[in-house]
Design brief:
mainly beta, 3 helices, 52% strand, Carb-bd_dom_fam9, DUF5916, Carbohydrate binding family 9 domain-containing protein
């Protein structure tokens, strides 16, 4: 092991020398920026995808696109020229794209729905930066099948949760395909001044050729995409409009479960209001989350809670600012009441009602960025008081037990951008609960700095959490620091991560492990342009050294080698080769400062992914883990074939199979909670998933989503007692009659939905949901028998209809004036 570490450090030393030798030769400030002048028009064009009206004749044509991928810097093909025009009036920006192609029949045209723009279809993108800061962009996409997409971007990161209402249409003829867009000013944020200082970029992706082109040259080996915008001039004497959009909705839900049926009607409204030219208020009044996707529940036998992705649109749209500092996990809002798991029930009492979620009363968020680059984000949400009902079985009397009080959740983010794609942010998250419950406050200072040449990045975070409990205040700290090269072929990285044992942002954030120091050193070799048979490839060497913070001791180290390749024909493959030293797990025992020891291990695995442009494609991944001097071993396998029956119908199936044997695992604590009982555990999991979409057009789709997850766990009855030094000794512990650690978990979810965007920003959705779940202690059960048992459980049938209408108040005012 010392030789391996010495060899690794030698490689890093050579790489750093190589990296710094080339750093001073690169400077993105010298990259030429094209200049395009937009044309003011008096009569807007008809948005029909045919930009041949007379109004377009006097608008300046832009062209001479440059290849971004795979041969960065090459001129565009003579057979695939790209041109564009940009016009504007008092209400909107108008964009025309001319994507010429000597064989229009070869243009891929897979249908997809909103924001699904990277399917097997050609793509046109118009990216605009209304502050010309080379950091932020608002992106508007249209595919050759006219699927629309919009996103906000910061550097190389783009967020498709951003949603606005704009118009786009496409058409084809014998010369190629065309797009027309209308981007209303209400979708943009810009300062109120006579002459606008904007920048922009235009992207074209030709799927059949596997090529990408941009109007302004992007050096893919240095910096970030947003640093290479062209200048957009000529936009003058426009005013930010009143930005007040209303999204009223009505919904009806019919639910049937275990012989009980219920029907509910709901109505409410979401609101989006432009407070100023830079800031927007979003509010959800009488929220309705009845049609969110199901959670990916698994059998959780680990020491940490199971958490799920956010599916509620209000908490996913436009929340990029709130992600800074990693203090915000929106699923905490409306989560399971904190007192619902520990109800004090007498022998003669039953729990009649114990709500699994707190009801969200309302939520608002204010977001925006000033002309000087100060981003401000405020989010506030309130959940109502939640109580459980307990009934006395003797006299029938009932009592209410408060499990979660009226609670206020708040986020505040101040993010100042500067220089070339750099920023410093101050983040605060607070949770205030009514009464004698725990309150919490967390703070973070976040730095992301790129040097002027865009060759190096430094990031750092300092965080503090305070939890105010009835017993006193608990304060915790965490820090993070990273340096990485962001240019050239050799890209090393160094990092350090620290969390003390009291760090706990979980009242509004999400964090699992604490009390550690982690030292990281990475070395990546990247080939981002075409070379030989490869479009690009990357070879990554990563090392991690982990220690407990208090008391300090080595908890484990690892070395990972991960090569990745993708050919000209879009066939991708790679490998995972990992070595792990002896490990001391601080959390498996469920007792503070009591570690469980595991020996050295090796993981080997790999994957392949075929060309998605073909009707049939497949993804395969497999791996094996083995502890070198212990019995534990694991196999996992995933296969996901997909078939595109037509440009309208795509079906994807995936099978995930995992088997882990002889892992020393936690079983229970002794009666006095001072000793952990462990034994060897075998687990076996199988997940089947099927997703498919039939697109009638780019506005109507029928989708199916099916998931069946099964997992079982069997514990050896040869129990061990964990000693103070981490060793294990045979135990005379025996299972009590009412306790069996074995587990069998099976869940079935089926969603069938029809969605129709009947007008811009307006949608009707009809959803049928079918779900079953079962948990028992039959750890030796087989999959088929478990499935039979599952279907003996009651089935939940849920049918819901929701209609949302988009109303632009500014446009409505004009209608009434007319």
């Amino acid at each position: 092991m010392p030789r391996i570490i010495l060899f690794t450090l030698l490689i890093f030393n050579l790489a750093f020398a190589k990296a710094y030798a080339t750093t001073t030769q690169q400077d993105t400030t010298h990259i030429a920026r094209k200049v395009y002048r937009a044309t003011r028009i008096s009569n807007p064009p008809k948005i029909d995808g045919k930009p041949f009206e007379q109004v377009w004749d006097r608008v300046t044509t832009g062209g001479n696109f440059i290849m971004a991928q795979p041969n960065n810097g090459n001129a565009e093909r003579d057979t695939h020229k790209t041109e564009f025009k940009v016009a504007y009036d008092d209400d909107a920006i108008y964009v025309a794209g001319f994507m010429y192609d000597d064989n229009p029949e070869s243009v891929l045209r897979q249908f997809s729905q909103r924001d699904q723009v990277f399917e097997q279809a050609d793509l046109f993108g118009f990216f605009i930066n209304t502050y010309n800061n080379q950091i932020n962009q608002t992106r508007f996409y249209a595919t050759s099948a006219n699927a629309l997409g919009d996103a906000i971007a910061e550097g190389n990161n783009q967020d498709f949760s951003y949603n606005v209402v704009f118009l786009s249409e496409v058409s084809f003829d014998e010369r190629g395909w065309y797009v027309e867009m209308k981007i209303p000013y209400r979708t943009l944020r810009f300062p109120e001044q006579n002459v606008q200082d904007w920048s922009f970029q235009i992207l074209r992706i030709i799927k059949s050729l596997n090529e990408e082109y941009t109007y302004n040259y992007i050096d893919v080996t240095t910096g970030t995409d947003t640093q290479y915008d062209a200048l957009l001039t000529g936009i003058e004497n426009i005013n930010p409009p009143l930005r007040l959009n209303l999204y009223p909705y009505v919904s009806v839900i019919h639910d049937r479960f275990d012989g009980i049926e219920s029907t509910s009607f709901n109505a409410g409204m979401d609101l989006k209001y432009g407070i100023s030219d830079a800031f927007t208020l979003d509010a959800t009044l009488i929220p309705d989350f009845g049609q969110v996707a199901f959670d990916q529940v698994v059998l959780n036998l680990g020491p940490f809670e199971q958490t799920f992705n956010e599916n509620r649109a209000f908490f996913t749209e436009g929340t990029d600012l709130f992600r800074k500092g990693d203090l915000f996990f929106s699923r905490r809002i409306g989560q399971r009441p904190s007192g619902s798991r520990s109800l004090d029930v007498l022998d003669n009492e039953d729990i009649i009602d114990n709500p699994r979620n707190s009801q969200l009363l309302n939520a608002i968020k204010v977001t925006g960025r000033t002309e000087k680059g100060l981003g401000i984000g405020i989010l506030n949400a309130i959940t109502e008081k939640t109580s459980a009902t307990i009934e006395n079985t003797i006299d029938g009397t009932r009592r209410e037990v408060e499990t979660e009080p009226l609670t206020n959740y708040n986020m505040l983010v101040l993010d100042q951008q500067y220089g070339n794609n750099s920023s410093i942010a101050l983040v605060n998250a607070s949770t205030l609960r009514n009464g004698s419950f725990t309150d919490a406050n967390s703070n973070a200072l976040v730095l992301n700095h790129n040097n002027k040449a865009a060759t190096d990045n430094i990031s750092a975070e300092v965080k503090m959490t305070n939890r105010f409990t009835p017993d006193g205040t608990q304060t915790g700290f965490a820090t993070e620091a990273n340096w990485r090269k962001t240019s050239g072929k050799w890209r090393p990285r160094l990092g350090h991560f620290f969390k003390d044992r009291n760090y706990n942002p979980n009242d509004l954030g999400r964090n699992f492990q604490t009390n550690f120091h982690t030292f990281a050193a990475d070395l990546n070799y990247v080939q981002l342009t075409q070379k030989g048979i490869f479009n690009r490839y990357e070879i990554s060497l990563r090392t991690r050294h982990r220690r407990a913070a208090s008391p300090g001791f080595h908890t484990g180290s690892e070395i990972n080698l991960n090569p990745f390749f993708i050919t000209k024909e879009r066939f991708a493959f790679g490998a995972d080769l990992n070595y792990y030293t002896d490990r001391k797990d601080q959390f498996e025992s469920r007792i503070e400062d009591r570690v469980v020891q595991y020996g050295q291990g090796v993981f080997t695995g790999g994957f392949i992914s075929s060309d998605y442009r073909k009707k049939f494609a497949i993804d395969i991944r497999a791996g094996r883990f083995k502890r070198l001097q212990e019995k534990e071993h694991n196999y996992d396998f995933r296969v996901a074939p997909r078939y595109r029956f037509s440009d309208q119908f795509l079906l994807i199936y995936s099978l995930n199979w995992d088997k882990n044997n002889d892992r020393m695992s936690y079983v229970t604590l002794t009666d006095d909670d001072t000793t952990s009982i462990l034994s060897e555990r075998d687990t076996h999991s199988v997940e089947n998933r099927l997703t498919g979409t039939y697109n009638f057009n780019n506005k109507q789709a029928l989708s199916i989503s099916f998931r069946n997850f099964w997992s079982r766990a069997t514990f050896s009855r040869e129990f061990k007692e964990l000693q103070l030094d981490g060793s294990l000794e045979d135990s005379n512990y025996t299972l009590e009659d009412d306790f069996n650690p074995d587990a069998n978990f099976n869940v079935w979810n089926l969603d069938l939905s029809y969605r129709w965007r009947f007008a811009p920003g307006s949608e009707a959705s009809l959803l049928y949901r079918n779900s079953i779940s079962n948990f028992d202690n039959e750890g030796a059960i087989q999959f088929e028998e478990s499935l039979d048992n599952l279907f003996m459980e009651p089935v939940r049938h849920n049918l819901s209809l929701r209609i949302t209408y988009f109303l632009d108040v500014n446009a409505a005012r004009k209608w009434f004036k007319a």
